[in-house]
Structures are given as C-alpha cells and as structure tokens.
Write a structure and sequence with these properties.
Helix content: 25-40%
Distance between the termini: 45 Å
Radius of gyration: 27 Å
Bound molecules: zinc ion, fe (iii) ion
Length: 766
C-alpha cells in the first residue's frame, strides 16, 4: 500500500491508564495505518502513515469513539513528510509524570461484570476484577508515572496468566496496573470484632452476608475507605448503627444491587437512573416511594433517599442473585465508616481501631487504599446532574479552563473542606475532606495537598485561601507558604462569596467580564468584617462590588444561632415569635430577647441560610438543627408545588428587607395556613426579591441588557425549588443564567474560585 501522508498527533487529557494505546493500535490496524503510539509526560503521541481517507477515519474514531475512560482535552495534529513507516508499535512510557492526568476510580465495566458472573471464567466471583476500562485508580496511586510499582498493587506479583494479559497490547488488560486474579491478587478476609461472638466459616463473603442478615453491623472495605453496612430493612439494626455511630438524624445512604431494586425504593427519572448507573456510581438523592420497603430510621423526616449501585466488584458480589435469596438482603445501609462527621476510615489498622466499637465484624482485604475518598453525592436539578459532594468517580478529573493558570494551590474553606491544585488550563479540585474542625480532616487537607502537588507535578507560585483568618484552611495555607518559600508574600486571601461566584464562572468557562453573582449560603466573612451570606455581587475574576444584599439581622449567640434556628426566628420576628417556641424554656427565650435588645453577643449577618432557618423555625418545622442546613432542607421538601403566591418585601438602598414577609407569615401561622403553603410562598418571595434586585443592578450599571449574565453559587443553591424557580424568573427577564453542575455550589467548590481569583489578581493570566 502506498503511504501518501504522515501525521504526528499529540493527544492531551486523561489518556493514560485508560486503555488508550491499545485502542490506538487496534484502530490503526483496522484502517491499515502504520506507525507508533507512546505515552509522554504531556499525553499520548501518535505517528501515523497512510492514505488520506484512512487518516481522516482515524481522526473520526479518536473524536467520536475513544475508550470509555479517556477524556480528550486537545488533539494537536502536524503533517510531516512520510518516512516509510511499517507495522504498528506500542512504545513504553517516556519521561516522568508531569502534565498527564490520572483517571478517577471507576465502577466495573460490563465486560468485567460478565466475567464476574461467568462460572467458566477464571475470575468468576473474584472481588477485585478490573481492566483498563474500569477499576481503582486515584485511590491506589501513590506517585507518578502511573505504573504498578507506584500503586498499592506493588505488593502483588502478577501470575503468568495475568502477566500475559498485562503485556499483550491488544488485550483489554494491557497495562491495567491493578490487574489481578484469585491466583495472584488481593484476597478477602472476614474478621469478627473481638468480644463479638460470630461464626466464621472460611468464606468471607458468605460470613459477611449472614452476619448482616442477623441484623449486625459489618464494616466493609470499599474503594476509598470503609463503609458501615447493615440491613436497610431492619429497624433495630439501623437504630443500633445510629447509636454506635453517634449520628442522630442525618440520612444514611443505601446500596442496592441494580436499577430495578433502586426503583422499588425511589421514583427515578431517566436522568437519575443514568446517574445511578454511570461509571462514577455516585449516591443519588432521589424521591423516595411512600411504600419503599426500608426502615424508617434510614432517613427520618426526609422525602428523599440517598441511593447508590455497587461501585466495586466486591459490592456486586454482595448483591448477586444466589446469595441475596439466601439471606434476604435487598438493600444495605452503606454509610461512611466514621464517627459523626470525621473523615472516612481507610487505613486498616486505623479502621479497626476507630470502628471496632461500631462494627460487629469486618469484611476487609489486603489491597491498600492510598488515598481516602468518600462516595460522591449527586442530585438531579432540572434534568441535569448537580454534584453536592465531589469525591469518588469524579476526582481527580480536571476542570478545564480556557485560560492558563500559573502553578497554584488554593486551600478552600472549612465546613466542606476541599482544595484545588492548578497549572496550565487544568484545575484539579480535591475530594471532599469533611469538616476541617476535626483534626483528622485537617490532617487530610495537608496530606491531600502534598499528594496532588506531587501527582500533578505542581510547585505553587501562588497560594490562595479564604479571607477568614481563623479558618483551619487559611492557617494551613500560611503554614504551607512558609514551608515552601520561607515567607508568606504569595498568599492571596479571597472573599468567600467572590470565590463562590468565580467558581461558577470558571466552571461555565465564562470570559473575564462582569456578571451578576448571586451567592446564597450560611456564612462567610465579608470585607466589612461582618458575616455575609445573601449577596448579589457584580464580579469578574479579579474583583467585585457588593451590589445588593439581604438586610443584616442580629445572630443571637453567634454560631449557636446556626445550630438553633429558633434564635434566628426571634431575631427576625422579635417578641411576637417568642410564643411559637413552647418547647424552649421561657428563661432561654427571654435571655435571647434581651441579647437582641441590648445587642450582646449578636454579630450581624446577611445570611440567606439563616433566613431559611428563621422561617422554618417559625412555622414549627424544627427549632434545632441536628446537622448543617437541616431545617432549610426540610423546608424545601414540604413546599406545595402548585402555589404561586408570594409575600411582601422591600428593597431600600440595595438591601432586601423581609420584615413585611415575616409579618405575613406570622398572620398565616395564626390562621392555621398549612406549612406547605407558607413554604411555597416563602420560596416565591425570595425568588421575586432576588429577581427584582438583579433588574435594579442591571438598570443601574454598565452591565448591558444583551449580556446580563447571572451566576448562582453557595450552599442555598442545593435547593432545587429555589434554583429552578429563580432561574426561570430571571430568564423571563432576559438574563442568561449560569449554574454549577460538576462543581458543588456549597463550600466544596470554593477552592476553584479562590484559584482563579488569585491567578487573575496576580495578573498571571494568558
Ligand atoms: Zn473492566
Ligand atoms: Zn493472576
Ligand atoms: Fe459558602
């Protein structure tokens, strides 16, 4: 065949450790192209020689049908003079790690699952089956380049059969670093916690299942850490798990075997079913069925249920047909292996130590977890996914930007710790680290920072953090800066709500032009030293002005007011509201009223989260939050769908006053208006007030009618009723609305915003 042309391609993105080179070799062979493919620090390089048609067909295949885990960001194609290449070679990796990207941990692919089920396959029922299209990645990688010795699989020697697959360029397991079989790979083990009397048969899986069927609690080692599992239909087991875990009311996640089982628990939309079955296998928050066969204690007072499908072959085996009928476990509670809000336990010794008083037994194995990573949580918003907790399956997939960032590190915020490491056009948001108030989470911030900087070969020139000097993340940023530079001059402190808006702009790849940013959340330090949280900013990446905000109210008792919504109700409604709270001792109510009157220990706040708290408490939904945002979450869920009425409000001097609304709500309460109607009217009022504020900002500023972009960010935008309602209303007024999808709207996404703001401030942008 005559080789008419030669192409040199450089493919950038997540293209290593995902079966990319075999795919290239196969495709080239099918099209009769000669050449070679090779991993480099920047991606994959491909040399091809052949006819015009074959080259064009190759490019089409690359663009339309790459391996499932590959994420191609850029293809650079140069034409060279033909050099008479023959055959096709896969060359081994060149150079060190550097710019290449690592794949997240991915649930078993269809081919692996078929083998797992196949009684004739040599990996039948093997709990660690994987291939280049699936399996653990980020959680087992200790360093770069991504090669077996740099993973926790280094302890296992490939047997001859596995080695043959590993070395065969056309095999599905070519260079699949975690490749293993029962002969040579990791093994399961079942261990009863000391002091518990549990029979051990020698088949770890059967032992775990029969222990679960007896209503006991088993700690199960998953992809990124230990879960605590129990039978989700067993009321007593669930109650016992809550007691031992010291988790009173927060919903527990449930794992089921397949989509049919998921549909028995929840009403699933098409989008939700797709999310559940996606290779990332997140926890999906879905609307639970009234008749869902599940213990009430799983998600008390919650109309939603967090459900997920098996995310590893081991999980699949817990649900495979024959076993389940034997033990009757159709749904398992699978909650993070920790006490309360600490980070998930992932190291074996640590897990045994921390969980031995919670779990009756452990289903564990000898494949190490290098990086702790929780389950991701996703919710469908208007047909599109919104990530609420970004972790397994999504991390470390980069957020691709249209501008170049200098090497940098952003420390994020405290409540939902997550950091960002960036260089070039990629920003890598770390996994959710938990509440940094906990020492273990704070340690995790330090370890994860170091790990991501090493993996992506980034030496930060800029370090960004929150404006709040007392955040653990802020302190760590200063410490870290000192450590690498001996001085702190490279630190940029970024205002909390500016970072929220910048993170939404960056995720939507918006240019550096002013937008109206609506940042609604619980708390964040403002530049005037007060607590902000109901902000309308006119912002670009470099700066912002506070164009409007909720009128500040006192927060009696400071942080205590966030845990006890009844305090906020008194702050908004005063004396009149005091009678609504019979459950709170009279003296306490009087004390808070006095604090308000005299302004003692009453920092002011414009927080939208606190407004939600106040109103939810007023209508009698709850006086105390068992976890962050609980009252607000329940308030959203009770909304009457059909009600389109609203209360009054006033906008004066760019401040939104809700006093008229509060008065009308109190009238509604005394006339026994249903909570669901009050909740709907409240949401509608908020939407109207924010829309009018945006119109006023547009009318009074240089933001033109044609280009009035609005960005939503902040934890309150986890509320679908608020987000969808506000988006629609704004679009009716000619605004273009941008929202989060793959970056959490809550503080888990804030490090991305810090990163882009700090880079623009330093004017390092190309
Ligand atoms: Zn596979
Ligand atoms: Zn083997
Ligand atoms: Fe926030």
């Amino acid at each position: 065949m005559r080789n008419s042309r030669q192409w040199q391609l450089l493919v950038e993105g997540t293209v290593q450790g995902v079966g990319f080179r075999p795919f290239v070799a196969r495709t080239a062979a099918q099209l009769g192209l000669a050449g070679e493919v090779c991993n480099t620090p920047h991606g994959v390089t491909i040399a091809l020689e052949g006819s015009d048609e074959a080259l064009a067909a190759f490019r089409r295949a690359l663009e339309s049908d790459p391996p499932p885990l590959a994420r191609i960001q850029r293809i650079d194609c140069r034409e060279e003079s033909p050099t008479g290449l023959t055959g096709f070679q896969i060359r081994s990796s060149r150079g060190a790690g550097g710019g290449t990207l690592i794949s997240p941990d991915i649930a078993p692919c269809a081919e692996c699952l078929a083998e797992l089920d196949d009684t004739d396959d040599r990996r039948h029922d093997y709990p660690f089956i994987n291939c280049t299209n699936c399996g653990p990645r980020y959680s087992i990688i200790a360093g770069v380049p991504y090669d077996r010795p740099k993973t926790t699989m280094r302890a296992f020697m490939l047997c001859p059969a596995c080695r043959t697959e590993y070395e065969d360029a056309l095999d599905r397991r070519f260079h699949a670093q975690p490749n293993a079989c029962a002969e040579c790979g990791p093994k399961l083990e079942f261990v009863a916690s000391s002091s518990r009397e549990i029979g051990v048969s020698g088949n770890p899986l059967d032992d775990a299942l029969s222990t679960l069927a007896e209503g006991r609690i088993v700690a199960i080692k998953g992809v990124g850490g230990y879960h605590l599992a129990c039978d989700a239909n067993d009321e007593a087991a669930v109650a016992e798990l809550r007691r031992r875990k010291q988790r009173d009311e927060k919903p527990l996640a449930v794992m089921v075997g397949d989509l049919d089982a998921a549909r028995a628990l929840c009403h699933l939309s098409e989008a939700e079913a797709r999310l559940l079955a996606s290779p990332q296998r997140p926890i999906v928050l879905a609307h639970r069925r009234a008749d869902a066969p599940i213990a009430a204690g799983v998600a008390p007072g919650n109309r939603n249920l967090g459900i997920m499908l098996p995310s590893s072959p081991l999980h699949h085996l817990l649900f495979s047909g024959s076993r389940v009928t034997g033990h009757g476990s159709r749904a398992l509670v699978m909650t993070s292996g920790n006490i309360s809000d600490e980070p998930i336990a992932y190291e074996d010794d640590e897990a045994f130590d921390r969980l031995k008083n919670i779990a009756d037994a452990f289903l564990t194995h000898d494949r190490g977890i290098h990086v702790r990573i929780d389950d991701s949580i996703v919710r469908e918003m208007d047909g599109a996914p919104l990530i609420l907790r970004r972790a397994r399956g999504f991390v470390p997939e980069p957020i691709h930007l249209s501008f170049e960032l200098p090497p940098l590190f952003a420390a994020g915020a405290d409540m939902k710790g997550a950091l960002c490491v960036a260089a070039g056009r990629n920003a890598i948001l770390s996994q959710h680290l938990g509440d940094l108030e906990h020492a273990a989470a704070a340690r995790s911030l330090e370890e994860t920072t170091q790990h991501l900087l090493t993996l992506f070969d980034v030496t930060p020139e800029i370090i960004a953090c929150d404006l709040h000097p007392d955040y653990t993340s802020t302190r760590f940023a200063h410490l870290f800066s000192k450590r690498i530079t001996n001085h702190e001059s490279r630190i940029t402190a970024v205002q909390h709500h500016h970072a929220h808006i910048a993170s939404c702009m960056a995720e939507n790849d918006l240019p550096n032009e002013p937008v109206i940013g609506i940042a609604l959340d619980g708390t964040g330090l403002g530049i005037d030293g007060t607590i902000w949280g109901g902000e309308l900013l006119v912002a670009d990446y470099a700066g912002f002005t506070r164009a409007a905000h909720l009128a500040p109210v006192p927060m009696p008792g400071g942080d205590k007011a966030a845990r006890e919504p009844w305090r906020m109700a008194l702050a908004y409604a005063g004396e009149t509201a005091a009678d609504c709270f019979d459950g709170i001792p009279r003296e306490q109510r009087d004390l808070v009223l006095q604090m308000l009157e005299k302004g003692i220990n009453c920092p002011t706040t414009s927080s939208c989260g606190r407004l939600f708290d106040a109103v939810a408490a007023l209508v009698g939904l709850r006086t105390v939050n068992a976890f962050e945002g609980q009252a607000a979450m329940e308030f959203e869920q009770i909304c009457d769908e059909a009600c389109d009425e609203a209360y009054g409000y006033a906008i004066e001097n760019a401040q939104i006053h809700f006093a008229p609304m509060i008065e009308q709500i109190i009238t509604d309460i005394s006339s026994n208006t249903p909570q669901s109607i009050i909740a709907a009217r409240f949401h509608n009022t908020l939407i109207e007030a924010l829309t009018e504020s945006c119109q006023r900002i547009r009318d009074g500023s240089r933001i033109t009618n044609h280009e009035s972009r609005v960005c939503f960010s902040g934890g309150c935008f986890q509320n679908a009723r608020l987000a969808a309602g506000l988006e629609k209303k704004l679009e009716d007024q000619g605004f273009a609305v941008y929202t989060h999808a793959l970056v959490p709207p809550n503080d888990g996404g804030i490090a991305l915003g810090q990163a882009v703001v700090a880079a623009h401030r330093a004017a390092h942008i190309c």
